[in-house]
Write a structure and sequence with these properties.
The complex is a heterodimer. Chain A contains three helices and five strands, in the order E-H-E-H-H-E-E-E. Chain A is an alpha+beta fold. By secondary structure, chain B is α+β, with helices and mostly antiparallel strands. Classes of the chains: A alpha+beta, B alpha+beta. The interface between A and B is medium-sized, with 16 and 26 residues.
Chain lengths: ~80, ~150
Amino acid sequence: MDILYFAWVRERIGLPRERVDSTAATVAELVEELRGREERYAVAFSDLSALRVAVDQELTDFDAPLAGAREVAFFPPMTGG
Amino acid sequence: MRVVVQEEPFDLAAETAAFAQGEGSSGAIVTFTGVVRDLDDAPLEAMEIEHYPGMTEKALHDIAAQAVARFDLQDVLVIHRYGRLVPGAQIMMVATAARHRRSAFDAADFLMDYLKSRAPFWKREITAKGESWVAAKDEDEAALKRW
């Protein structure tokens, strides 16, 4: 699946998107996999309360299942308007 | 219903006039425009707005459709810019058309509360002292509970 990062999450991880092969069943499991990769991921995902997640462009929560998901995005709380 | 996400400026007067055209059955049109404001402590050089292409359009359509259903709108327009904006530049606008003014005002207020916290935009402020991401405010999240 494609993983996208926005705003300071993108800056901390150092790239806007990447393709990841994962067997994670939920967003939380995917986060655990990413945290284990490298320090920059561990730092970016250190406080989930500061992050929001969208699966296939729909805002959801970290318990959300990933079955069939094509695109997962992580970002800080939005500041539109 | 019209939703536009664009980098270039929009013409507020022309958009408002076009929106008002043919709204004879509405009786009430409200517009709101957001403008890049100077900061209190340091002069703002620019504001950069990042967004999530694809999700942004979907989220704005969804929010606009909710406003139409909830406030019985005749029509709604949402324009939101991204990219680099200087102080005084127009960031976004909403326009609502309803049979009565209360619905038009409330719908514009509802749209703004949801655009702030549920549309995937992120603002970054650039000053002579440095750059920083604008943090979401607790009160913005709390504002959604009003609805």
